Amino acid sequence: MTNSETKATLSFSDGSPSLEMPIYKGSIGPDVIDIRKLYGSTGMFTYDPGFMSTAACNSSITYIDGDKGELLYRGYPIEQLAVNGGDFLETCYLLLNGELPNAEQKKEFVTTVTHHTMVHEQMQFFFRGFRRDAHPMSVLVGTVGALASFYHDSLDINDPHHREVSAIRLIAKMPTLVAMAYKYSIGQPFVYPRNDLSYSANFMHMMFSTPCEPYKTNEVLVRALDRILILHADHEQNASTSTVRLAGSSGANPFACIAAGIACLWGPAHGGANEAALSMLEEIGSVDNIPEFIAQVKDKNSGVKLMGFGHRVYKNYDPRAKLMRETCYEVLQELGLQDDPLFKLAMALEKIALEDEYFVSRKLYPNVDFYSGIVQRALGIPTALFTGIFALARTVGWIAQWKEMISDPEQKIGRPRQLFVGSAKRDVPAIDKR
Ligand code: ACO
């Protein structure tokens, strides 16, 4: 962050003195106006619901150019990381440490994560308190938050070693917890992690193996899952990441902060969109019904949205959606499901929407969730768990952003202000006068 030569001057039509504010330049992307002195100097706040024009922090982790449809993790394009960048744990290392690991660093990192995949044995009793039909996201909010009560030895947020251990624990244990949530929901025994498998293969093993017969992981499907994880690993200051930062700004422990992030991710406008996109495709049912559905989407009174389309930042094709469509094709091919009706429907819907004036004029393009539901369904992951997989992937981004925030000297407790539009001060009337 460098100070620009140009300054912003805010002037007022009522004759109040104008205010000069510094402008900072990032390495790429829009400059920011530093408004921190605004309230002290003028007694006024800025008003920005939804944070459309607000940079809440400086960060060197992830960069998105929404107009170009570009996503960089620590400077590396997502397309290169997904295709040539090794596996998900390499991406984790990159997001956490700023650089890709060399062979030795990778070996050490993989060994460390692998040796933290088991959860405390008592965790299984905690799971048993949930109803079997509980939504996995509610189970994850509860169990991830509960990790704080099992790992007291890594809760001192001021100790860099504690922060590191918590980060590793969260990345390592999330697959175990997500798989346990699934196994619990279908009444099968929990499956312990296997240290001889890769991160993604181990997750598939914990999800799909049973004690009754050997389970062999399929390399194409493992690669597809790994790609889902890489594509969802971080995404700048989105709602759940900002939630994690805000929760962490009070000094809360990392397990509590990630639980808060999971709660935010659950919403259908955020992580719940892949589940909603798949349900939407199932509801549309056939290519013949697309025109009627598109008409409903355009009718503002219908409340219907084209799920998996549109993004706060991308005003171009989400680069992750292209990669996900490619993976979708590979997985369906591998499983002999090339004629999958939902995939065909999704492609037809995408084509029609991309040519329709309503979507074109609003710059609405497919986002990553448009295809990820179809891939996950083909992998055997139940719809209700889709957002849980997203949470598993995003944990590394959340914890990398949390770590960055804790070590930022400018970090303060997050405390937005408001434009108050309620009653001014008044007296409480007696009950017979109300
Ligand atoms: N279907 C139909 N119309 C849409 C859609 C959509 N999916 N998305 C936006 N629009 C319309 C809005 O109605 C609005 O129209 P108007 O200008 O006539 O009022 C215009 O496009 C701009 O949309 P906003 O809601 O202002 O855009 P915003 O940036 O606030 O919302 C969001 C982004 C929440 C992602 C929105 O596009 C949406 O709800 N999409 C569907 C849900 C979804 O796929 N979410 C996943 C996001 S990606 C992720 O979390 C991984």
Structure description:
The chain is mainly alpha-helical. A three-stranded antiparallel sheet has the order 1-2-3. Helix 3 runs parallel beside helix 18 and helix 10 packs antiparallel against helix 11. The chain is globular and about 80 Å long. The termini are far apart. The structure holds acetyl coenzyme *A. The site of acetyl coenzyme *A (ACO) has 18 residues, from loops.
Topology record:
Layout: E1 2-10, E2 19-25, E3 32-33, H1 38-42, E4 62-65, E5 70-73, E6 76-77, H2 78-84, H3 88-97, H4 103-114, H5 123-127, H6 136-146, H7 160-186, H8 199-208, H9 219-231, H10 239-249, H11 254-265, H12 273-284, H13 290-298, H14 319-334, H15 341-355, H16 357-361, H17 369-379, H18 386-406
Antiparallel strand pairs: 1-2, 2-3, 4-5, 5-6
Helix pairs in contact: 3-18, 6-7, 6-11, 7-8, 7-18, 8-9, 9-14, 9-17, 9-18, 10-11, 10-18, 11-18, 12-17, 14-17
Bound molecules: acetyl coenzyme *A.
Acetyl coenzyme *A (ACO) is lined by residues 269-271, 273, 297, 305-312, 362, 364, 367-369.
Poorly predicted runs of 5 or more residues: none
- Rg calculated over all Cα atoms: 24 Å
* Integer average pLDDT: 94
Number of strands: 6
- Helix percent reads 40-55%
Number of helices: 18
